[in-house]
Amino acid sequence: MTYNQKRAKFSFNKxxxxxxSKKRKTKKEVxxxxxxxxxxxxxxxDKYIAENTFSDFEITALLKKNxxxxxxxxxxxxxxxxxxxxxxxxxxxxxxxxxxxxTVAFAIPVINKLLLNRNSKAIIMAPTRELAQxxxxxxxxxxxxxxxxxxxxxxxxxxGPQLRDLSxxxxxxxxxxxRIKDHIENKKLKIEKFDTVVLxxxxxxxxxxxxxxxxxxxxxxxxxxxxxxxxxxMDEKVQKxxxxxxxxxxxxxxxxxxxxxxxxxxxxxYITREDRYEKLHDILNENRDKKVLIFKEMKYKxxxxxxxxxxxxxxxxxxxxxxxxxxRQKALLNFKRGKVDILVATDVAARGIDVKDVALVIxxxxxQSYDDYVHRIGRAGRAGSTGNAVTFVQGYKKxxxxxxxxxxxxxxxxxxxxxxxxxxxxxxKYNDKNSSKxxxxxxxxxxxx
Length: 449
Prior knowledge:
The protein is α/β, with parallel strands linked by helices and 449 residues long. It has 3 domains: 3-30 and 259-398, Rossmann fold; 54-253, P-loop containing nucleotide triphosphate hydrolases (Rossmann fold, 3-Layer(aba) Sandwich), CATH 3.40.50.300; 413-449. The chain is 43% helix and 16% strand. The protein is built from 16 helices and 15 strands. It has helices at residues 3-11, 61-69, 77-87, 102-116, 129-142, 159-167, 177-185, 202-207, 211-220, 236-245, 273-286, 299-311, 325-337, 347-350, 370-377, 411-448; strands at 91-95, 122-125, 150-153, 172-175, 196-200, 226-231, 249-253, 263-270, 291-295, 316-319, 342-345, 358-363, 387-394, 396-398, 404-406. The strands form 3 sheets. It has a 7-stranded parallel β-sheet, with helices on both faces. Strand 12 (358-363), helix 15 and strand 13 form a beta-alpha-beta unit. Helix 4 (102-116) crosses helix 5 and helix 7 crosses helix 9 (211-220). The N and C termini lie far apart (67 Å). 37% of the residues are buried.
């Protein structure tokens, strides 16, 4: 089966989202391709000497035992500096690079507080289902042997189990702002007695438009509470929301430069879609048995590319918002365990992906903004490791006159345009007819005036 035949197989299936009439809500930023080219320049950092070990922290025997089972010995900088403050009940704003152990930095003091006081309750918010799930899994391991009840509130799953867990009055609730808000509005979750709140990846939650949900949830919590905020970046938006909901917090900043500095960045030019797909094949063949993360903008396009690569013999899968939570978890778990080498993802779904050994990030399409680009390639530069990133950029070719023209459309692309034109021709005529009628009507009105 040729490349064009495979594309035709997926393009016009409505169930796969083949809708040409939809438009993107946000305008795509024009990015100079030169910004996608940069050699990795990891900053040499002095080796951090921790002031504590995990055994030094004043925590319950059960929590200490579970930490030992996790084989945690020496804390990372963000853990070493923030855990002692949080254990004493202080508010914390922790700023650290992605992949430096922020989850454990807030999980240990929160769980210790719950174990010491069974009347205490904590709510933890994260921007994506995947990240919320990862936080839940970590907390569950640290809670082994305790009778503390929990609930995870995320979209993409049935409400039944969530309602059942909420009916048991959990001490710890983990979830995304949207789903947490749904349960609050339905009066299934009463957060007036939750005395601890954690906001993980505050910057991402703001970028994804959760600011109003976050404010509404925080405003319903008791004023006398402990607040822990963690973020990879710090700007005015993050500062504003933290200042609004915490009057006395300690800032712990251990960020060591941008994650993108650890990534060797390059571009791959292509002319047609077939050419791009062939060059993708070449890159993937050169990186056999390595974890590769490929970014696509649209859900149905990510699904289609994952299936095309699987048909061509690659161990590939896709993850996007159109899949159920079970499907997303399975794809992510297979990617982590090496059952799948290639994961095709959309930006939103990838924000919860925490896989340390991603060797290569491929931008099969240029991102919506440069910030999205930095976040994408950071998946290959985790926790100080050096990764690689390749961005596909459409090139130019000479015409018969020797002038440089934008790459000509393939026959397949032209057929798509013909089908689209035919499909919407009658709507265009209708709009033109109505438009001319409106103009005549307005003209006659102006004459009568």
